[in-house]
């Protein structure tokens, strides 16, 4: 695919060039995601409030239940749950949606005039709309809780881009795999259901210190570190140094691998879809 979006047979397309071109020209993916969301909720009574209502119900209901079951103070547990759940929800929406992004745009791909990264960014854009409304719930919970301390909030300006960098390469890899293997979306859904239980979202990680066996197993989970770099600043703390290192290493290694995979296999996507 050249700069205009058409495929070339002599070499594979360059991922970073395509991504940069897509970000510079957001007309297709930004409008497509907005149109899909507004069309889905246009005839509902609450409209776009449905993007926030499920999050609010989840946090309020499960927050009250689990805070009593695990003897956590509600004013501390509710912000922990809200930030963790909204961040996790953003991550899984990107991952699950992008798994079917390329096959669902088969007609446009066959025309060869739109970059593959545009279709991947559609999934990102839709997830950002959900994150915006879910973030409103997080803000409300943080304002309600007397335990809220935002002294380290500025570190989120550094840590959130790290999350996006990792989601970026993961999304590209999954999009390519999803184009080749149609079971990818179902498999990811099953894995993420288990991942939700194994990742400290409903339960607090401070029950498992890093120097214990269980604490080491928890920190072996990459999703924990991706959550931690975002959640800790919003809860008034610093992310663990190990989490920052893991997230940085994941981003560097992941993008290096993804650039090679995209150059090698992106040209075959029209055949796969």
TrEMBL record:
InterPro entries to which the protein is assigned, alphabetical: ABC2_TM (IPR013525)
Domain ABC-2 type transporter transmembrane residue range list: 34-233
Annotated transmembrane regions: 46-66, 78-99, 119-144, 156-179, 186-205, 242-262
Main location per the UniProt record: membrane
Topology within the bilayer: Multi-pass membrane protein
Any one GO BP annotation for this protein: lipopolysaccharide transport
GO MF term list: ABC-type transporter activity
Keyword annotations: Cell membrane, Membrane, Polysaccharide transport, Sugar transport, Transmembrane, Transmembrane helix, Transport
GO cellular component, as recorded: plasma membrane
Pfam families: ABC2_membrane
Subcellular location field: Cell membrane
Protein transport listed as a keyword: no
Family: Belongs to the ABC-2 integral membrane protein family.
Protein name, per record: ABC-2 type transporter transmembrane domain-containing protein
Source organism of the structure: Arenimonas fontis
